[in-house]
């Protein structure tokens, strides 16, 4: 499967140790791993089975959460059509830094669909005293960002599939909307119809290998 062309680029942002890589691994491979810290960025691909037997390839870019990598974030975000902004339910500071990552998207001039994700749901279910960010706070923040919102557990898989389904439905809706706009544009300006609107070009600016780093990273 090629890393050069994908139907949708998804970028995942958030503080270090919130569980970004474990979330991606659960989405792509359907399993829970306990990897090391991500350095730079890594990319994984996954097929989405859409309506009417359609199939799309989504590229998920995992980014480092350490501040020393912040300068690279705009390059990673460029061309993304969807962003997962992640915080930990047991880490208040990770929630406080959400605006920092939203600003990164804005600086990269990304027209994106945002999903806000609170991780480590299994830990707060086992011990409610560990929760540092309430459900209501997460919902309020998502409303402010006009984002979808999920509390998930990468360990148990709870609500993880809902994220993937939401992304897929968003992408198919965007294709329908884009098709309608193209039809209108073709009627009004038939010479302006683009030749190819099916794929986006993704250029890997990572300092690391383009090969997927399965189960070796942790945020």
Overview of the structural elements:
With 219 residues, the chain is α/β, with parallel strands linked by helices. It has a single domain (5-201), classed as P-loop containing nucleotide triphosphate hydrolases (Rossmann fold, 3-Layer(aba) Sandwich), CATH 3.40.50.300. 35% of the residues lie in helices and 21% in strands. It has seven helices and eight strands; from the N terminus they run ββαββαβααβααβαβ. It has helices at 20-29, 73-77, 92-96, 98-107, 121-126, 135-145, 160-188, and strands at residues 5-6, 8-14, 41-49, 55-63, 82-88, 113-119, 148-151, 200-201. Strands 3-4-2-5-6-7 form a six-stranded mixed beta sheet, sandwiched between helices. Strands 1-8 form a two-stranded antiparallel sheet.
Question: Keyphrases for this structure?
Answer:
Rossmann fold; P-loop_NTPase; 6-stranded mixed sheet; alpha/beta; two-stranded antiparallel ribbon; 21% strand; 7 helices; disordered C terminus
